[in-house]
Design brief:
Elements lengths: L3 E6 L7 H15 L3 E6 H4 L22 H11 L4 H12 L2 E7 L7 H10 L21 E7 L16 H14 L4 E2 L3 E3 L7 H16 L15 E2 L5 E2 L1 H6 L28
Parallel strand pairs: 1-2, 1-3, 3-4, 4-5, 4-6
Antiparallel strand pairs: 7-8
Length: 271
């Protein structure tokens, strides 16, 4: 069955490796009969700052402006700015969202962070009751596809940049999983600017191959929300903690129980 795919893309150059990776995704997914829409953030000159200008109606509390609360009210009233409303439409219709970008300072570029800040508004993307495994987008899949400036060895457990699984935790757990998305394993293009042309071509072919079955992939595993006690500060329930007490590794990268991190927890499904 054909699906709808949204690619949120952030790179300034049409001649970049990121552009090539985006083009391969559009080509392969479209050839499968899927509908692919691209939000080219730089080309759109997408506004990266979350401000009161994002609301077309009245501000409830001008003296103490709270972006989350004010945009929730504006979303409910249909008073968000047109660029946010359009991106929320794309997201609502999509079955899969791919974030394609070059990693900047161990995270997404500012323009993409602005998309996250402004589009994933309170009420629309999450609420106190609807988050993590009970999140609003629990029937959608999302993934990160990005380039690095450093080689893979530098992002290892013994590397100078530290374990990539740790770098990914705030993005994949704190943003995607928080909103309920089923998070597919990331696709990482390691240091394409520092490898020969043949190696870059191989990277794109590997991506092309993965895209063939991407929509059927199993997502990464996250600890279900009902394993935490909401009446006790959302701490892991004692019976869950006890169940895993003798395990060699912690539950997840961020929920490690003071144990060694589970290898590749944020890089591969089924671990």
């Amino acid at each position: 069955m054909a699906k709808k795919v949204l690619i949120v893309y952030a790179h300034q150059s049409a001649g970049s490796f990121s552009a090539a990776a985006k083009a391969v995704a559009v080509e392969v997914l479209t050839a499968q009969g899927n509908t692919v829409e691209v939000s080219d953030l730089y080309a759109m000159k997408f506004k990266a700052t979350a401000t009161a200008e994002d609301i077309t109606g009245e501000i409830k509390n001008t003296e103490h402006f709270c972006y989350a609360e004010e945009t929730k009210l504006a979303w409910e009233a249909g008073k968000l700015s047109a660029d946010i409303t359009e991106e929320q439409r794309k997201l609502t219709e999509a079955d899969l969202i791919i974030f394609q970008f070059p990693m900047y300072w161990f995270t997404v570029p500012a323009i993409m962070k602005g998309w996250i800040d402004r589009v994933l508004t309170l009420g629309f993307a999450y609420s106190q009751e609807k988050r993590y495994t009970q999140g609003i987008f629990k029937d959608k899949k999302a993934m990160l596809s990005f380039t690095t400036g450093s080689h893979e060895s530098m992002f290892s457990a013994n590397g100078i940049n530290g374990d990539m699984n740790v770098t990914l935790w705030p993005l994949q757990n704190g943003i995607l999983h928080y909103c309920g998305f089923q998070v597919l394993a990331p696709h990482i293009f390691w240091a394409p600017s520092h490898v020969p042309t043949e190696a870059r071509s191989t990277m794109l072919e590997t991506w092309r191959t993965r895209l063939q079955g991407l929509l059927e992939e199993e997502p990464l595993s996250f600890t279900p929300m009902d394993c935490f006690d909401g009446e006790k500060g959302f701490q892991l329930k004692p019976e869950v903690h006890e169940k895993h007490a003798t395990n060699e590794f912690g539950l997840m990268v961020g929920i490690h129980l003071g144990k060694p991190l589970p290898p590749n927890n944020q890089m591969r499904a089924g671990v």
